[in-house]
UniProtKB/TrEMBL annotation, chain A:
GO cellular component: plasma membrane
EC number in record: 7.1.1.1
Function: The transhydrogenation between NADH and NADP is coupled to respiration and ATP hydrolysis and functions as a proton pump across the membrane.
Domain called NADP transhydrogenase beta-like: residue spans: 6-471
Upper lineage: Bacteria, Pseudomonadati, Pseudomonadota, Gammaproteobacteria, SAR86 cluster
Top-level taxon of origin: Bacteria
Originating species: SAR86 cluster bacterium
UniProt catalytic activity: NAD(+) + NADPH + H(+)(in) = NADH + NADP(+) + H(+)(out)
UniProt KW Protein biosynthesis keyword: no
Protein name (record): NAD(P) transhydrogenase subunit beta
């Protein structure tokens, strides 16, 4: 039996890796998730036959509890995952990720509780967690517990922030110092658990780790959320890998560590695209320190344009490059934009979409929305591929994007955005910006592009403005 | 079974594998891939099942129950969301055939 189970775990781990591999190309991506899904079903089913579970004193109750928990947890996730709108995907990923972290932490909790009981009953003579579980298992188990718990509470905060349920960026004065102290105390308790097996120490440790996750995530600015979610994703992977070691489960080790390393790399790529270090994301929110540098009136005046004129400009363009940002997601304008694209294409205009790596709230967020609207992915270009093309562009249409086209990132060393790679929209012959109001962007930094000579502002809600543009282009 | 140096090897090789997978991904697939890897660590469900399966006391059963509940949420939710996202990735030639609003 044991052999069948281990072999199934091996197959599952292989399916996960192959699945992820296939997910890295748009052509095979769909097959990838099916493979990974098959691996998950296989691993779950064989676990029911695991001797550890079948030999337990309470096998009947426990198996019943397992089934009930899977039905409730899985059913809820199935329902919420199916009905959530595409624009709300990032927070759902954050929530499901948090659940994974919580599960890893709970596994650690069960193991530590068992060790604690064993110590108090003096079964083996060992009285510390380290003595009962063994040095390696104790260390990795406790590490997994810290990481998993932080990922759990942190992801829940990330979810609440993205879902608009929480907008506070500060809980306490000197939050960072409090966080540092709290982290030290939490680690202290972790060490204490290792050398004792006291149940109260274990409980306090978990409570502290939960609070730490909350405190770490609350100050993080909305623009940095993708980095945080990606980081928590990697952390959950690590925690799962560590708890896999505790349980001697190869599938968990391999899958967890693969996700841990893939997630870490993804986190770095994202942070780099925003010109921020991961540490920076935690310790300095862009939105908090720029108020002083931002607002001076020397930038000039914004020039407004009406939809009709913008429509004419685009209809007779040779090439239009559309740059979407989070504003498009908020306004749900992606369908209208695609309609506009189709009409322009019929008129012989070349239309391309330019996506900044961190446009939206997650890398690839815009791609998902455009794909939802039906935009074929071969019309969508990455920053490196499109930037040289802007000088051949008649109209760059910016909808709901701001910081990712801000030229201060290139030429103003005092700007908080300085050094961030941007889309060179300012090199286009004309720039049309669809924007709700005159305010600064998500980071709170003013954008000189909006005041440039070749820039015209089309004020209004993204979807409404796009409809007006469609109307204008159709009438020609 | 998996101990000492063997475990170190597994950790190391799995780490390299994850790194390799991500390093060649186009930006357009970053969100789906993050979601996909989020699904993959839903394998924690298996560990949660074992943790609940070996529980002896009521307290252990409660924590184990929570573990399975959360693990199942991670696995199922991760799958549904990833699948929905990837469903939309269609090349342009197929697109012209399937009519969408």
């Amino acid at each position: 039996m044991e052999t069948i189970i281990q072999a199934s775990y091996l197959i599952a781990a292989a399916l996960f890796i192959l699945g992820l591999k296939q997910m890295s190309s748009p052509v095979t991506a769909r097959r990838g998730i099916l493979w990974a899904g098959a691996g998950m079903v296989l691993a779950t089913l064989v676990t029911f036959m695991s001797p550890e579970i079948l030999d337990s004193d309470q096998v009947g109750t426990n198996i019943l509890l397992i089934v009930v928990a899977i039905v409730i947890g899985g059913g809820y996730a199935w329902y919420s995952g199916k009905k959530v709108a595409m624009t709300d995907m990032p927070q759902m990923i954050a929530m499901y990720n948090g659940m994974g972290g919580g599960a890893a932490a709970a596994i650690a909790a069960v193991e530590l509780m068992k060790a604690s009981t064993e110590a108090s009953h003096d079964v083996t003579g060992a009285t510390t967690v380290a003595g009962i579980l063994g040095t390696d298992i104790a260390i990795l188990g406790i590490l997994g517990a810290i990481i998993g718990t932080i990922s759990f509470s942190g992801s829940i905060i990330a979810w609440a922030k993205l879902d608009g349920r929480l907008s506070r960026s500060k809980l306490l004065p000197k939050q960072h110092i409090v966080n540092a102290l709290l982290a030290i105390v939490t680690v202290g308790f972790a060490v204490a658990i290792y050398f004792t097996a006291d149940i109260n120490t274990i409980i306090i440790f978990f409570v502290l780790a939960l609070i730490l996750g909350v405190f770490i995530t609350v100050p993080v600015g909305g623009a940095d959320m993708p980095v945080i979610i990606s980081l928590f994703n990697a952390l959950t992977g690590l925690a799962v890998g560590f708890e896999g070691y505790v349980l001697g489960n190869a599938a968990m080790i391999v899958a967890g560590i693969v996700v841990g390393s893939a997630g870490s790399l993804l986190t770095q790529l994202m942070a780099k695209a925003m010109n921020r270090s991961v540490a920076n994301v935690f310790f300095a929110g862009v939105g908090t320190n720029v108020a002083a540098t931002g607002s001076d009136d020397s930038l000039g005046v914004m020039k407004e344009i009406q939809a009709q004129d913008a429509g004419i400009l685009m209809s007779f363009a040779s090439q239009v490059v559309i740059i979407p940002g989070y504003g498009m997601a908020v306004a749900q304008a992606q369908h209208k934009i695609w309609e506009l694209t189709q009409i322009l294409t019929e008129k012989g205009v070349t239309v391309k979409f330019a996506i900044h790596p961190v446009a939206g709230r997650m890398p690839g967020h815009m791609n998902v929305l455009l794909a939802e609207a039906g935009v074929p992915y071969d019309m969508i270009y990455d920053m490196e591929d499109i930037n040289a093309d802007f000088k051949n562009t008649t109209v760059a249409l910016i909808i709901g994007a701001n910081d990712v086209v801000n030229p201060s990132a290139k030429n103003d060393s005092s700007s908080p955005l300085y050094g961030m790679p941007i889309l060179d929209a300012m090199n286009a012959e004309n720039v049309i910006v669809i924007k709700r109001g005159r305010g600064a962007g998500f980071s709170g930094v003013e954008n000189p592009l909006f005041f440039a000579d070749n820039t015209k502002m089309l004020f209004g809600d993204g979807q409404k403005a796009a409809s007006q543009l469609i109307q204008a282009v159709k009438e020609l | 079974m998996i101990e000492g140096l063997a475990a170190v090897y597994i950790f190391m090789l799995a780490g390299f594998t994850g790194y390799e997978i991500i390093s060649k991904v186009p930006v357009i697939l970053h969100t789906p891939l993050m979601s996909g890897s989020n699904f993959v660590h839903g394998i924690v469900l298996v560990g949660a099942m074992v943790a609940l399966g070996i529980a002896d006391t009521t307290a252990e059963q409660i924590i184990g129950f929570i573990a399975v509940l959360l693990g199942a949420g991670n696995a199922v939710g991760g799958y549904v969301v990833t699948e929905r996202m990837l469903e939309m990735f269609k090349p342009s030639d197929k697109k012209s055939k399937s009519e969408e609003s």
